[in-house]
Please model this.
Amino acid sequence: MSDIIPDIFRGLMVIALATFSASALWGLVFSVKAGRGQAAFDELRRAIAPLFYVSFLVFAVSWLLGDVVFYAARVVAHEGTKLEPSVEFIRNGFAVTRPLVVMLAGIVFVHGFLFLRREALFLKYATTLSFAALATGASILAFTVFIADLDFGQVFFTFHNLHPILTLGTVITIDFLYFHSLRRRKLAGTIYGFFPNMSACIWVGLAIDFSLSLFFFREAFKITDQFLFVQTVVAVIVLNGALLSGKINRGLIAAVDSGQEKAASPRFKTIVGLSGSVSAVSWFSIYSLDFLELPLGYPMLLAGYVAVIAAVFIGQHFMDKKLAVARDA
Amino acid sequence: MVSEFFVASQNVKINARTVNGMKNFLPTMKLSELLFLATGILLLASLPWLKSGEVSLWLFAKVFYFAGVAFFLIKR
Model:
């Protein structure tokens, strides 16, 4: 059991950094749009600030634990396959990214200081700071696994670690913005109208992952229950994404445009909640399983997946109601 | 016998409703969304073959996916 704890923290580190980089990416986009006089986007870039800081905090803690506690003590050992990074490559990754992590902490500190204490300066430099945070976060992700040789393995790990900015990180940012839209109804139209751009990034991110798996097909192809389960979840992501980024998002925009959102049918609200829960849990599942090899069969993995979706859906339902009460009060 | 007939007739009803629902639902979707739906269905359908090491259908599904992404980006 103790062997999987370092992997859990490494997974948490990558997921948090992908979320941080995605919030920096969308903060950058919102800043550029706000700079062009679209006032609603100024509020959106402020709205995602908590996600930016919290994800950095989670990343910093898991990175420190990984660097100082878990991987420092482990011996060098190759695992035999190209697509599973050896502990040596992971250790290399911690070593080469140390200066970047210090730099990122500095950027986040300056961002936070200006955001909380120097309003005018924050408005002036928000775009630059978001770009710096994105570039540094993406550079750390790119070299989380460092082979010290520019071969195909390095190319695979670099792009495999970068695309979660477009996929998982963007999905979490969308969920965050959706919950924000429940409290700030005036922004709902802007947020839902912008979702197709974010969906485009998610589809492109998944296309990068598909391309990589085709590229490294022979090495990557190992039929296990976990592999089949991940393929099932990928199919669910594509099916659910087709509905979520299409009909469901169009329904949200139509409800806002017609001013009838409060009257939106409970059935439609349930579909939105369920589809959002399926999306978040599915993306989180496939990234978590990148780092973990669970000793479970296909039925057990599927049962766990359905149970987590049900739990998240119930949680989302209560949060939705709570935010609606807070909004109406 | 009666109960079997009852269950069977209920199934027919549900299926007819599903077919009608799909007839109304599918035309409201964009081409990229239909391609994504096809990708998802093909990926699920390929699982039994994938289990036995046959990857053709699994790879074929990805062609639909890339076409879907291309249409999504062009027609957005």
In short: DSSP finds four helices and no strands in chain B. Helices of chain B lie at 2-25, 31-45, 47-51, 56-74.
